[in-house]
Automatic annotation (TrEMBL):
The keyword Transcription regulation does not apply. Signal peptide: none annotated. Pfam families: Glyco_trans_1_4. It is an enzyme of class 2 (transferase). It comes from Gemmobacter denitrificans. Keywords: Glycosyltransferase, Transferase. One of its GO terms (molecular function) is glycosyltransferase activity. Its EC number is 2.4.-.-. The lineage of its organism: Bacteria, Pseudomonadati, Pseudomonadota, Alphaproteobacteria, Rhodobacterales. This is Glycosyltransferase.
């Protein structure tokens, strides 16, 4: 029999190339690509599948390595070829990414040819890994000739449709139906996410076998950052995430407005919003457009700069309404930075008693807590937050543990 191989779906990661810093789901797909490339070097062949505008592309390990290099910022995307410019007129970055794919593709096919393409190039028993919530469709599952593994990050589009674009819940429901019918193993990052996901999978008709494998938390070493408008001589707090309704930036703007009414200007902390503007958040965008005092938008920060910004802060603020895992508070905790967060089940499961938990609808409690935190002194003047607060230092989960848990179950 041919040696077993692995097929990693990189549709999500490719869609993000050339569009700024990666989100949490993007980072997970990238981590899997890096790990499976190591397996390829040890004799387990790696391939990648990417959905194109008009079909699919199949890549070998060299193509995966090229995508990883792009995602890590180690190389630049090529100029878009004519076909890409015609097919992706509305998305120049994606046009360049698909030009890269065609340069590395082993094969390409139209949608109806997917099963034949995979049968021709992949050995029987090849395991299919979908870690990014993209390309989850019956046709894709049916074309596989080995175990089909899916990482289901959360079910927020169905549980909290008010926090997504109007078309997303229906799209996500179709993805859940495909997972229910076609997945052989569903991976969950927390037990809380598993419980929510399996309720919906049961409603879809079938609950595939599942495991809980916490995501690895790795942070870049704190580096220098230059942020116009930030006064480094005064304390600041950081919130990280796309500016969308679910992340609850409105509460933080209310808090800063309240602090400004009760504190003198020279005693006001600064709020750094590290994230790009998202969707369905016109009221928050309008408030930010007025340039509220002591509030700074900081989209596009690199990993090292973001770590440096957090390390010098008074803490990470995370008043989110819903999370499947909560990477920003986990990464802050890994840096030893104070965390102030909503008491969400997933965040509690991952971080235990490390954060200070605050009701995500009670702006007064957030204001009082932040004001007290400002008086605690600059980070260079304090002991480790975890020790000083009576908490043990938090030990982050590792990617090796995550990979081992999943691969042992294949």
């Amino acid at each position: 029999m041919p040696q077993p191989a692995r097929l990693l779906d990189l549709t999500r990661l490719v869609s993000r190339l050339g569009k700024g810093p990666l989100t949490g789901v993007d980072r997970v797909e990238l981590a899997w690509a890096e790990h499976l490339l190591q397996g390829d070097a040890m004799g387990i062949p790696l391939f990648a599948l990417v959905r194109l505008r008009a079909g699919f592309a199949l890549l070998g390990s060299g193509g995966v390595a090229a995508i990883v290099a792009q995602a890590q910022g180690r190389s630049a995307l090529p100029e878009a070829d004519l076909l890409a410019r015609l097919m992706r007129r509305d998305d120049p970055a994606r046009a360049r990414a698909e030009t890269l794919l065609r340069g590395h593709a082993i094969a390409r096919c139209l949608p109806f040819g997917l099963a034949s393409m995979l049968a021709r190039y992949l050995p029987p028993g090849t395991a299919y890994f979908n870690m990014g919530h993209a390309n989850l469709a019956p046709r894709v599952f049916a074309a596989q000739r080995g175990p089909r593994l899916v990482l289901l990050h959360d079910t927020i589009p169905i549980d909290f449709p008010e926090f997504t674009r109007p078309d997303i819940p229906a799209v996500f429901a179709r993805k859940l139906a495909a997972i229910s019918a076609g997945a052989d193993l569903v991976i969950h990052s927390t037990a809380a996410a598993r419980a929510a996901s399996e309720r919906h999978l049961m409603q879809a008709g079938r609950v595939p076998p599942g495991i809980v494998a916490p995501l690895g938390v790795v942070v870049a070493a704190p580096g220098a950052f230059h942020l116009p408008g930030l006064d480094p001589s005064r304390p600041w707090f950081v919130t990280i995430g796309t500016i969308e309704p679910r992340k609850n930036h409105a509460l933080l703007l209310d808090v800063w407005q309240g602090l400004a009414a009760r504190l003198p200007a020279d005693a006001m902390p600064q709020l750094v919003i590290a994230g790009s503007r998202g969707w369905s958040n016109a009221a928050v965008f309008a408030r930010l457009d007025t340039r509220p005092p002591h509030v700074i938008e900081a989209p596009g920060l690199g990993d090292s700069a973001l770590s440096g910004l957090q390390a010098g802060s008074q803490g990470l603020l995370f008043p989110s309404f819903a999370e499947g895992y909560g990477l920003p508070p986990a990464e802050a905790a890994a840096l030893g930075v104070p965390v102030f967060a909503s008491p969400l089940a997933a965040v509690r499961e991952v971080l235990g008693d490390y954060p200070v938990y605050l009701d995500n609808t009670d702006s007064y409690s957030w204001m009082e807590t932040i004001e007290r935190a400002v008086t605690a002194g600059r980070p260079t003047d304090r002991q480790c937050f975890a020790v000083r607060g009576g908490r043990r230092p938090w030990v982050p989960p590792t990617w090796d543990s995550h990979f081992n848990t999943v691969l042992k179950a294949v």
